[in-house]
Specification:
Elements (H helix, E strand, L loop, with lengths): L18 H4 L5 H10 L4 H4 L12 H13 L5 H10 L1 H7 L6 H9 L6 H14 L7 E10 L7 E3 H33 L19 H56 L4 E3 L6 E5 L3 E13 L2 E8 L8 H12 L5 E9 L1 H10 L2 E6 L8 H5 L8 E3 L4 E3 L5 E11 L5 E9 L8 H4 L6 E4 L1 H14 L2 H24 L10 H39 L1
Helix pairs in contact: 2-4, 4-17, 5-6, 5-7, 8-17, 9-10
Amino acid sequence: MKIFKPYTPGQKMLLPPDLEELIPPGHRVRLVNAVVERMDLRTLEAQFKGGGATAYHPRMMVKVLVYGYMEGICTSRKIAKALRENVHFMWLSGGQRPDYRTINLFRRGRLQAEIKTVFAEVVGMAQELGLVDGGTVFVDGTKVGANANRHRMVWRKTVEKRRKRLKEQIEARWAEIEALEAEEDQRYGGKDRPETGEGQDPREQETKIAQAVAAINAKLEKRAKAEEAKARKEWERKRRKLEKELRALEEKKTKAEADQAALGERSGMSRTDLDAGPMKFKGEGLKPGYTVMIAAQNQVILGYQVTQQAFDGTCFIPLMRELKEMRGQGPERVGGDSAFGNEENYAYCEGEGVEAYLKYGMFHAEGTKAHRENRYHKDHFVFDPEQDRYGCPERQVLLFDHEEERVTPTGYKQVLRIYRGQACGTCPQKSGCCLGRARTIARNENWERLKAAARKRLTSAEGKRMRKRRGTEVETPFGNMKHNAGWRRFLLRGLPKATIEAGLHCTAHNLKKIAIHVSNKYFLGAVHGVYQAA
């Protein structure tokens, strides 16, 4: 005989259930509640003016949003649905149910100025627990798609060509209008139009001769008037058409100028999100997006930044400055891949007293067989500082020719000394060494000095440990947020709102790490107690 547990749908309960009893003691929703409860949110609360209808408490809204991002529930509608159906959200909100509009308005509005504060509080808690100390950080960046149509991109070159073409077309229309005006002036000889009666003598019409002439002229005038009316009608049609085209061209020109102003220094943007720029995604080609930069230690994110720059290397210094501003001091050591190993970043680290374990572009290539066998690579030309010249593998010399100054897209100035070969024209190996008349080498003294120091650090024992740690330290947070949490693109549009979203994702990731650390700590403590009792 089969026996089942009693099942009575709609069974009434003697007392309403206590949500507190439905939440396990070690559940991470309790961690979110405890962390947000200890946050100083007075500046966020000060944004509410008071009066009128009562508002939802900002502390409750922060809890709900942070926990939602921890659980991969990021859209305002899904969060509102969870507040009605999910016992954890119901416990966290105290049974309150703000709708999706209220959640979205709070996230993109009031939370914008305070997201960094919320993030910093969580980082501070991780530091108190001993997870991080901020001394050694690793930096990296990733591309995240924007909430924008990839087929509605605007390109700088296209806008500039359009503006030039519109200017020429507007000038051509004005020239045609002026030609029509000149044609009318020539037709009437500087007088007003015939129907006004200007230039006629009424006394001449009183004579019989004048009447006879008038009768004859009446027929001619009737025909002339018909032709004149037709010509006038055609003239007015052309004038109206040109004025209509001119107004349309002026509107297009105004739109092109607005596009150029919105582009700024960028090469392109999306019409559906003016802040998003074209970026290359693996397997997806070009589409609008943002670059998210993070600085991490022990897989805990210490600082983040959302930028419009497609290249990670140009975002390093702003990220370091923001990290220093948030913590009050910069890191002692920083590690990163070859995207960050350039002269400007090395110089910044040197000025700030930071040990830079940032790989430069040729670091790995220098140890390859192909590089060693490439006799005519710049690295195989020997520089003689005393005589200020280079020696080539064919025992010829390259003497100093001139000096150049270059400015990077970020405004950093580089000084290059150009050396030119003296006997390249008669060298039998010229075709394998250079394509021009003579081989030239551009030498940047400051870069060579910084690169040599970086090479020494990277090849040291500490450098090898830093390079080995980099992948797990900084790639893991991105993998957790993008793959595990499903963060494929931003939900909100615009750089300020994208920064809010990134802050919520980073905060949720850190809370996950804290939850794992706390649970492991309790677990290990319990195990240790069992062994002591045994």
